[in-house]
Amino acid sequence: MICLSVFAQNKHKKRIHVLIVDGYSNHDWQQTTKIATHILGKAGLFTVSESTAPCNPDDSAAWAAWEPDFKKYDVVIQNTNNIQNPKLKWPRRVQLELEDYVKNGGGLYVLDSANNAYSDWDGYNQMIGLGWRPKTYGYALTVDSLGHIDSIPPGQGQGTYHNDRSNLRIQVLNDHPINKGYPKQWLTPDMELYRFARGPAKNLIVLSCAKDPLTGINWPVEWIVKYGKGNVYVSSMGHLWKGDTYPLGYRCVGFQTTMIRATEWLGSGKVTYPVPSNFPTSAAVSVVNESN
């Protein structure tokens, strides 16, 4: 378990202000927000707030009243997904406010389910770099045995899909403050690996990949995107489906450590949160034993 002394060491530091935007998804967004808040709370680095969007696309009054004030926060965590109901989308004014927020230096954390969202929002596609998109849209990236990135153009390959959830070995590709001190490979449980995540793939650095157990292809797992003066972190780790309760993927020490460190980096430009002694190895998973 992540040592409580970390919280004690950090409790007097200036807090990073985080806003989780939620309200609808084909995943369990309520529990996702709850667990993300719990994970970040253990670090002693953050104050976490929520802004819950309306869930009825026809409730014009509720949408007019919904005004998340991104500028008040250092990091925005995106936890909405309209893949099953494309009519559910942020008002254009809120879309532009998020784009301006990131362009002007804000940090955006895109959760696993959230990179499935808003395929018709060009700014969002640019910000996330790669997402759950059809075969005709954007480039897909693969990683060869030497760690080099290859691209698959629009129309080739397939649209995005994923493997069955399984234990996968994360391979660190690029040194970055988020993964500094990590083993080069570490095992995470119960993960969905995105095959053919697609998008503009501009200003993008792949931080890690994992090998597809079916085809042997290495697909990106985490990446960061530079968007204006701001930064975006995207990961396919952390799947929380309806009916799950604090699943192993979220209890993974590697996932929790990465969520904390990525959020700290997005909000401050540096990482002070330590790599715990029980971080996973290339041979063994490591999960926290607690209720959320």
Describe the structure.
The chain has helices at residues 4-10, 29-43, 60-65, 92-103, 122-128, 248-251, 253-268; strands spanning 16-22, 46-52, 75-78, 107-110, 139-143, 149-152, 161-162, 166-172, 185-191, 194-195, 198-199, 204-211, 218-227, 230-235. With 292 residues, the chain is α/β, with parallel strands linked by helices. The two termini are 13 Å apart. The chain has one domain (4-268): 3-Layer(aba) Sandwich (Rossmann fold), CATH 3.40.50.880. 23% of the residues lie in helices and 26% in strands. The strands form 3 sheets. The protein has a 9-stranded mixed sheet, sandwiched between helices. The chain has a 3-stranded antiparallel sheet with strand order 6-5-11.
Give unreliable regions as ranges: 1-5
Sheet with the most strands, sense and barrel status: 9 strands, mixed
Structural class: alpha/beta
Quaternary class: single chain
Level-2 CATH architecture? 3-Layer(aba) Sandwich
The radius of gyration computed from the alpha-carbon positions, rounded to a whole number of angstroms, is: 18 Å
CATH classification class: Alpha Beta
Globular, elongated, flat, extended or rod-shaped: what is the shape?
globular
Describe the structure using short key phrases.
disordered N terminus, 26% strand, 9-stranded mixed sheet, 292 residues, 14 strands
Task: Indicate the topology.
Layout: H1 4-10, E1 16-22, H2 29-43, E2 46-52, H3 60-65, E3 75-78, H4 92-103, E4 107-110, H5 122-128, E5 139-143, E6 149-152, E7 161-162, E8 166-172, E9 185-191, E10 194-195, E11 198-199, E12 204-211, E13 218-227, E14 230-235, H6 248-251, H7 253-268
Parallel strand pairs: 1-2, 1-3, 3-4, 4-14
Antiparallel strand pairs: 5-6, 5-11, 7-10, 8-9, 8-12, 12-13, 13-14
